[in-house]
Amino acid sequence: MGLSFGDGYFGGTLAPSVIYEYNNNIALGIGLNGTINNQKDVYKSTILGGSLIGLFTPINSIQLSTEFEQLKVTRKYESHLNLSNDSYWVPALFFGLGYRNGNVTFGIRYDILYNSNKSIYLDPWTPFVRFYF
């Protein structure tokens, strides 16, 4: 979940996932992603999609992850900017390494399909935090 705002900008993200632990070492799941960004008099974007998640815990506190994400990006620019509106699909394939302590895992992941022109992320490296209920 994320929320940011300031001086004419609003951004919000909701990205829940459901993960089933098959045993102490293997878990699989699915996730959804919904993001809205709005910069007053500049642009609006909507990002919707989903993901498939695989987690492997070889030892108690180390978690390896893989996640395939497919997102539909729609961007609309204000007409005075002379930028064209666009709508496209963008895939991401993340491989991650995390430290797990109880119901929390934090770590970093890398997108091997990263495309700097289309990705919604600034960099192929992305930190993450997962909370389990």
Automatic annotation (TrEMBL):
Superkingdom of the source species: Bacteria
Protein's recorded name: Alpha-ketoglutarate decarboxylase
Source species: Snuella sedimenti
